[in-house]
Design brief:
InterPro entries: Cell_Envelope_Assoc, DUF218, Rossmann-like_a/b/a_fold. This protein has a single domain, classed as HUPs (Rossmann fold, 3-Layer(aba) Sandwich), CATH 3.40.50.620. The protein is built from six helices and seven strands. Strands 3-2-1-4-5-7-6 form a seven-stranded mixed sheet. Helix 1 packs across helix 6 and helix 4 crosses helix 5. The longest helix is centred in the C-terminal third of the chain and has 16 residues. The termini are far apart.
Length: 202
């Protein structure tokens, strides 16, 4: 991996060291069942009392409502329905947060800390979550590795440069850079205790 590849990986990587206690676990929409694995682990570790599942009808398979599929998977693993909030209409990362927010605020008075379940290379979603939930001060990232669309191989930090999906990560880096430069997303600082919101003038 070249220096430039390292910089791309560092830039898009959502990871932070470890997880901590949070008000809820937020799962961004995905067609893949493994997206819920980090949520199960965090929930069973007692890190948060509530799991928010997002994602509406899949573009390729409209009958497949992403959040509902994930809810069934979690319930099959013994997680009680009352521990789940299910948002069923969103089609983008921004909508995942926008449409889940009213459901969250009906259940919780104060939301300061969140565990975000994201692909390792989608740091953008951490910023989107901070933008959509403005009271949140700290976000822990529970990351996972998706399988490549063309070759089916996972692309983690050590293998993404040889993956057929390499262009996706490069495009993600360019898009994130554009959003942060234009200040469309809030600033966050990666710390030993999660992503922390950067307040203007501080």
């Amino acid at each position: 991996m070249s220096v430039s590849d390292d910089r791309v990986a560092d830039f898009v990587d959502a990871s932070t060291p470890g997880l901590g206690k949070a008000d809820l676990i937020f799962v961004f929409g995905s067609t893949l069942p493994e997206a819920v694995s980090p949520a199960v682990e965090a929930f069973r570790s007692g890190l948060a009392p509530l799991i928010v599942l997002t994602g509406g009808p899949n573009r390729r398979r409209p009958a497949h409502v992403e959040s509902e599929v994930h809810a069934h998977l979690l319930q099959a693993q013994g997680i009680e329905p009352e521990r789940l909030l299910v948002e069923r209409r969103s089609r983008t990362s921004v909508e995942n947060v926008l449409l889940a927010r009213p459901l969250i605020e009906e259940r919780l008075r104060s939301i300061r800390t969140v565990i975000a379940v994201v692909k390792w290379w989608q740091r953008r979603q951490v910023h989107v979550l901070a933008a959509g939930l403005p009271t949140v001060e700290r976000i822990y990232a529970a990351t996972w590795n998706p399988a490549g669309r063309a070759d089916g191989r996972d692309y983690d930090r050590s293998s993404w440069t040889s993956s057929s999906d390499r262009p996706r990560i490069q495009r993600e880096a360019e898009y994130l850079s554009k959003l942060l430069t234009s200040e469309e997303l809030p600033g966050l600082s990666r710390t030993e205790a999660g992503w922390v919101r950067v307040r203007p003038g501080v």
